[in-house]
Amino acid sequence: MTDTNAASPNDNDPAATPDCYVQTLAVQPPLQVPPGFASFSQPTQRGSTVVFRNLAELRAHGDGATTYWRYGIHATPTSEALCQHLAMLEGASHALLLPSGLGAISLVYFALLKAGDDVLVPYNVYGPNREHGEWLARDFGITVRPYDPMIGAGIAELIQPNTRLIWMEAPGSVTMEVPDSEAIVAAARARGVLTAIDNTWSAGIYFRPFDKGIDISVQALTKYQSGGSDVLMGAVLCRDEKLYQRIKGVRMLMGWGVSADDCYLVLRSLPSMPVRLAAHDRAAREVAEWLAQRPEVARVLHPALPDCPGHAFWRRDFSGASGLFAVVLRARYPRAQVDAFVEALRLFSIGWSWGGAHSLAVPYHVQTMRPAGSWPPAGWQDAGELVRLYIGLEDTRDLIADLKAAMEAKLVG
Ligand SMILES: *Cc1c(COP(=O)(O)O)cnc(C)c1O
User: Fold this and answer.
1) Which of 58-62, 191-195, 365-369 has the highest mean pLDDT?
2) Which of 98, 269, 319, 370 could disulfide-pair with 103, CB 3.0 to 4.6 Å?
């Protein structure tokens, strides 16, 4: 074997000595990357062991290291390609991958907080984020204080000397309020407090957190980046090198990594993501506007419609909307009737984790999800149960007909 393209990195290349026994040849075939082969797909490079050319390379750590690659869980060429693509799309300099969106949220907590610290979390944060915070408060000596997502500059009054982190979500889960992130960031920066945003709804495309001075963005790649309802993955993104190194170090200690095959699936979906998002946006606005005219509906909570709290901030800060919104039905429909309406839908499936091609519907009883008395907001007339809708890629004429039929069958009286 004299082929200099052999991919085995050992100086003492075993493939160069084919006079081995068959068992050795079975383990160490001559690996070759065909010269001149190019395609649009990223190679799926799996690997737990990373092979070093010599011991000096194995022993070199940190700044002295001559190879970037150390161990499969930290990074592979495939995961790195995904990190770079995600960072580029959202305007970050770095991304870290986690086995789920919730894993990404957890990493932010554990990387930035220690016992005695304080964190502010909006009422409408993604439910498992809230539960994660409650766990940290119960068992880890961290204070986690909920705040009204529409608080804006008023957040300054909540910041304490030990406040280290302010979470935002834009818009928030289920109730869809769009926060005044500029005012929250300004108050946080004035006090040296870090800000993190769960930016899953905009897929990192319609809202640019780093241009707004937000320190950290979290993505549930499970949603639009996957687009197929078949991958679980999350990302933490940031623009600051020091912050990146700090979070990366904790990710290493936690032993969190992702499969190269899953990375490949997400890499395969990213090129179509902006076009898919635009289609979800168009369809969701059409359905939302139709719903806003219905007599059964008290209020449509879609950031691009004026009835949604924070609509003005959506106009100021976003370049588009995604496929997820909520509708508040009139107070005359009790929970059981709203449940019957959702179960009567034929094209909307019942389930979590939007971002794929299929439309979804889930009813929520918001009163039990946030501090007493904070829902419905003061002044809302006739507000009853909430149904969250995700508009997939079906034809909107069919989706609207489905909603109409289920309303006429179940939301009577
Ligand atoms: C789905 C979701 C997550 C969690 O993502 P998983 O990959 O399911 O853990 C986090 N934040 C938001 C806003 C989400 O919608």
Assistant:
1) 191-195
2) 98
